[in-house]
TrEMBL record:
Species in which this protein is naturally found: Pedobacter nyackensis
Localisation: Cell outer membrane
SUPFAM superfamilies cross-referenced by the UniProt entry: Carboxypeptidase regulatory domain-like, Porins
Signal peptide positions on this chain: 1-34
Name of the molecule in the record: TonB-linked outer membrane protein, SusC/RagA family
Pfam families: CarbopepD_reg_2, Plug
Protein family per UniProt: Belongs to the TonB-dependent receptor family.
Membrane topology, as annotated: Multi-pass membrane protein
């Protein structure tokens, strides 16, 4: 029997023993048998009006019904000791324990601005009472997120929670096919790519769960309805289906996940079907995307010609060459004088339109509930012909038999993303405006200038041949990625008796990603790179299958006995993820409409072979959680988790994780008397150790690769591909958190504060080994980091007038986060030394990543600069010994600034007047630094022979002795490489900004309007939202260099039937 199955058997034996103990404990405290009753009553608002559609639910048995049009309800088969929950959107839920013999319960619901996490916290495994919880968590409703951004739930979450950081990709901008990269409370790992190498690159994006986390080792664990999921699933799901999102931050909140919880957990809950008559809900959003090109300030036609002239491009010491260059200058200048001033930035962009249709149907009678959800979401990007289309279908079935509730959810989704055939936006920013885009007949030109023979000039054009990236849009280019997903998640919940529940779940999810890229032979990328006709044109194809199986079983027990409240949860889980993919790349397809793999001439000059990959990862986990609360004043909890994974060394397959916390509800102390300043106060503290599994599946295993190049007597040999490390341990993060919540001035101000520290040990990094082994390095536990900071959130209901139906709530949040490297492997030091090599100055034009003990993982390293010498126009540097020099030396690099901002936060305003709603959100950051690559690439290191320049190239550069300038003099031609500007402190600038992220105006139509009644509509709503309205920054740099950023508008309609 394998070790995995031994561990599995051991896990479930411990679970069964735990459940038996819970059952015995409950038998000692209450009677098993009780005769059920029928409860009737009414649900009304504060004005006495009936609330139709309010949900009435038995908390323990999950039996549920809803109120009729007159607000009455009838709930059958209820335990006489049950607790009923009455809820409706926009009202505070009410919990009513039944009194002895009580059969009629009338309830009044009060309007509320808070709707989540009032009585329980859901960590994705089980729900616990708030009174028995000591962790740091924040919950947001789906409606709250939609008010911020109705199109992108990840951007909405990052805008209102300071701990959730969305990494802005300055290259890919608002590309609809680029998945977001997020972190909770900063970084606990060094940034690495999917290959495992430290880098600052962009993560891959597909439906593979392992690749999703491997590409971003700092990504939090994502849970959807109790099952682990991927960022792509969350990114592509219908936002209208989201009931709530809970962000779990500290050890007390996350330790039940053990080895997967070091980066925090995001729990997404979808809406459940409502009982009663059939309800239909339809919503549609019309979206508009506008390209934001405000960060670009490029030279016009005459301006770039003047810059080239000053740089000496049209001059030469050789008289014949000088004449030829002057001919080209005059030709180009004449074109500019005649009005040729092409604004290339406008060529590949468009106003993108999109629609998001969402339809849901739900109903049920008695014990049966069902729900059907359909969604079609198509969004065009701001670059022409780029788009992302999503098709989603889900079916929910819920059935209650006595005390057993059965839930099953089937999902089917298809996503297709088309990349623009117009190429990179950078190609258009580089184009000279004195080139025409189209000829006199209106056709797009492929080669932008005639050659010297056609013009009868004496020499070739300075800069060589220039191709038009717009020309590729006329070709039969194919460039897309797609993903088909199908899943089935089953949950069974048995309420054995009041307070004691047993749950089991099994999920199966499969993703089938594919991508194709075809570039015809006439593509401009082949003009200079390939001269052999038979190798023109390329085709690439990727096919894969990724499967995840997830099973859980757990039990929970909650009992209140006088002033004592006990909560116990015990459970276990197993997960298996497998992926396989095949990638093929071929060349030699000379005809543009023959975009088929079998029509290629071969695998290209490098004779590359098709690539395939298979991986399998298994993990097991079991946990025990205990929580005790006394008199709603003192709370203590402790959770123990044991996890096992196939990823780690054979000597360390299992690892323990644990966490706990205490809380003190000062409000309920006798000495704490209510006053005019502080009405409520709660202090909590937590600690614990969690782990991380975002690593390669075979990093500790000895792996061989067959050699197809050489054979031995018609037999294939195998080469050792990965060096085994049986002692590789689990990466562990010690989390400590101290929190305080306050209610001030009779509810006028609510404050939440958290102080945290996260220390990661056994950081998995490469270790150098002897060359005789045949390897450069292998993986070992040789590093550590420390991440710490604090978070503050303040909310205030400035106006709360129920009679006039006016509500205004404002909020402010901010967070401070720092990280430092505490320990590193010698292999990382070798990388630092390689990056300090001064021989290849081309790679030193921007700061290279460098990881040093005592410094941040996001530190910017550059050579200190005193600026430009007015006498010579050269840059003056500071050496390590403090002396000054004109010579740049990589060994003089020092930490100049941290890209991680000192403070990040946001402000929000939510105003409601009768049926009108106005919402406003902004985010800010301060104290961070950024290397202004625009000034390097477009001003000092700009190659005026081949690309356009920033306007500052003419205004702020040194020209003659005595000039006090920000930039060096213009240098071009053969000596330009000797004058390259390398990583210097001159371009490390403060990156403070304020973004107005969203503004929303909505109106809820009254139900008594004639047309609303005639159409038999319920709660129709109209909503207009603008996202990314404005940005104010201290740094002027080009944004969206490969794909522009966008400002978006959304016009939405929704109604129930």
């Amino acid at each position: 029997m394998s070790n995995d199955y031994k561990i599995l058997n051991k896990t479930y034996r411990s679970i069964c023993r735990g459940l038996s103990a819970l059952l015995l404990l409950n038998l000692l405290s209450t009677s098993l048998f009780a005769q059920n009753v029928t409860i009737t009553g009414t649900v009304k608002d504060e004005k006495g009006g009936p609330i139709p559609g309010a949900v009435v639910q038995d908390v323990n048995s999950k039996i549920v019904t809803s109120t009729k049009a007159n607000g009455t309800y009838e709930l059958k088969n209820v335990s006489p000791k049950a607790t009923l929950r009455f809820s409706y959107v926009g009202f505070k839920p009410v919990y009513m324990p039944l009194k002895s013999g009580e059969k009629i319960v009338d309830v009044i619901l009060k309007a509320s601005t808070t709707t989540l996490a009032e009585v329980s916290i859901n960590n994705g495994l089980y729900k616990r009472p708030v009174g028995n919880f000591t962790g740091a968590a924040k919950a947001y409703s789906g409606e709250e997120l939609k008010m911020v951004n109705p199109r992108n739930v990840i951007q909405a979450l990052a805008a209102i929670d300071p701990s959730v950081r969305l990494t802005e990709n300055n290259i890919l901008g608002s590309d609809p096919n680029q998945l977001p990269v997020i972190q909770i409370r900063g970084q606990n790992n060094l940034p690495v790519s999917a290959s495992g190498n430290p880098t600052t690159g962009t993560p891959v994006s597909n439906g593979d769960m392992m690749s999703s986390y491997l590409s971003n080792p700092n990504e939090p664990l994502l849970i959807l309805d109790g099952f682990q999921t991927t960022m792509q699933t969350i990114y592509d799901m219908d936002i209208n289906l989201i009931a709530s999102i809970t962000v779990l931050k500290d050890a007390a909140a996350t330790v039940a996940y053990g080895s997967k919880a070091a980066n925090g957990v995001i729990v997404v809950e979808t809406k459940q079907p409502l009982p009663g008559k059939i309800r239909a809900t339809y919503s549609v959003n019309f979206n508009i995307e506008l390209p934001d090109l405000s960060s670009y300030d490029l030279l016009d036609a005459e301006g770039i010609l003047e810059a080239q002239r000053l740089a000496g491009i049209y001059s030469d010491e050789n008289r014949f060459n000088d004449i030829a260059k002057k001919q080209w200058y005059n030709y180009r200048l004449n074109n500019a004088k005649r009005g040729v001033n092409t604004y290339w930035l406008s060529q590949p962009v468009q106003i993108g339109f999109g629609t998001n249709h969402s339809f849901s149907l739900s109903g049920g009678a008695g014990a049966l509930r069902y729900g059907l959800n359909l969604n079609y979401n198509n969004s065009e990007g701001v670059m022409k012909e780029s788009s992302r289309s999503r098709y989603n279908l889900s079916y929910n079935l819920s059935y209650v038999v006595k005390n057993v509730k059965f839930d099953n959810r089937i999902t089917l989704g298809y996503t297709k993303g088309n990349n623009t055939p117009w190429g990179s936006f950078r190609d258009y920013a580089d184009q000279f405006p004195f080139f025409r885009n189209k000829d006199e007949a209106g056709n797009i030109i492929k080669i932008l200038e005639p050659n010297n023979k056609e013009l009868e000039f004496d020499g070739n054009a300075p800069g060589g041949t220039f191709t038009n990236p717009s020309y590729n849009s006329t070709l039969n280019i194919k460039d897309y990625s797609a993903n088909l997903s199908i899943g089935n998640n089953t949950n069974v919940e048995w309420t054995i008796m009041d307070g004691l529940q047993l749950r089991g779940s099994l999920g199966w999810n499969r993703n089938v990603p594919e991508s194709e890229s075809f570039y015809p032979a006439d593509h401009t990328s082949f003009v200079k790179s390939i001269s052999i006709f038979s190798e023109l044109g390329s085709y690439g194809q990727l096919r894969g299958i990724n499967t995840a199986i997830d099973g859980k079983i757990n039990g929970s027990y909650h009992k209140k006995m006088g002033n004592h409240s006990l909560f116990v949860a015990v459970g276990g889980s197993f997960q298996q993820t497998s992926s396989q993919s095949t990638r093929v790349g071929v060349t030699g397809i000379p005809i543009d409409y023959l975009s088929e793999l079998g029509l290629a001439n071969g695998f290209g000059l490098s004779n590359t072979r098709p690539l395939s990959n298979k991986s399998l990862t298994k993990s097991l986990s079991n946990y025990l959680s205990l929580s005790y609360n006394y008199d709603d004043r003192y709370t203590a909890e402790f959770t123990f988790n044991q996890s096992g994974s196939s990823q780690f060394g054979s000597n360390n397959k299992l690892a323990p994780f644990y966490g706990g916390g205490v809380a003190w509800n000062i409000t309920n102390e006798d000495f704490f008397k209510e006053n005019d300043i502080v009405q409520s106060a709660k202090l909590r503290a937590s600690f614990g150790i969690t782990g991380n599994q975002n690593f390669s599946p075979y990093m500790s295993t000895q792996v061989y690769e067959y050699s197809f190049i050489n054979d031995y007597r018609l037999s294939l040999g195998a080469l050792l591909n990965n060096y085994a490390n049986p002692d590789l341990k689990w990466q562990q993060t010690l989390k400590q958190n101290l929190g305080l919540t306050l209610g001030l001035f009779k509810g006028k101000i609510n404050v939440g504060m958290d102080l945290f520290r996260e220390t990661t040990d056994n950081l998995i990094l490469p270790l150098d080994v002897a060359p005789s082994t045949g390897f450069v390095n292998y993986q070992d536990n040789l590093g550590g980091t420390r991440n710490q900071g604090y978070e503050v959130s303040i909310s205030s209901p400035l106006i709360k007038n129920s009679k006039r139906n006016i509500f205004w709530t404002v909020g402010f949040n901010t967070g401070h986060y720092t990280n430092v490297i505490t320990r590193l492997s010698p292999a990382i030091e070798a990388i630092n030394k390689a990056n300090n090599s001064s021989f290849d100055r081309e790679t030193q034009k921007s700061p290279l990543p460098r990881f040093v003990v005592g410094q941040s993982t996001t530190q910017i390293w550059a050579v200190p600069s005193f600026g430009i010498d007015p006498a010579t126009g050269k840059e003056v540097f500071e050496k390590l010994d403090g002396s000054r020099t004109f010579i740049w030396d990589a060994n003089d690099k020092r930490p100049i600034g941290d890209a991680n901002s000192k403070f990040k936060g946001g402000m929000s305003s939510n105003f409601t007047y009768k049926n009108f709603v106005l919402n406003f959100n902004l985010v800010f950051q301060t104290g961070g630094y950024m290397y202004n690559q625009t000034l390097v690439d477009r001003v000092e290191n700009v190659d005026l022979l081949s690309g356009n320049a920033d306007r500052r190239v003419l205004t702020d550069r040194w020209k003659q002795p005595g000039d006090h300038s920000s930039f060096k003099s213009l240098v071009s031609g053969p000596n330009a490489g000797l004058q390259l500007t390398n990583a210097t402190s001159r371009f490390v600038q403060k990156n403070d900004f304020l973004d107005i992220t969203s503004m929303t105006v909505g109106y809820n139509f009254p139900s008594n309007l004639k047309w609303v009644k005639a159409a038999r509509l319920s709660t129709p709503r109209i909503m207009i939202t603008q996202n990314n309205f404005a940005r104010f920054a201290t740094i002027k740099t080009e944004r969206g260099t490969g794909y522009p950023f966008a400002r978006s508008f959304s016009f939405g309609l929704s109604t129930n039937f």
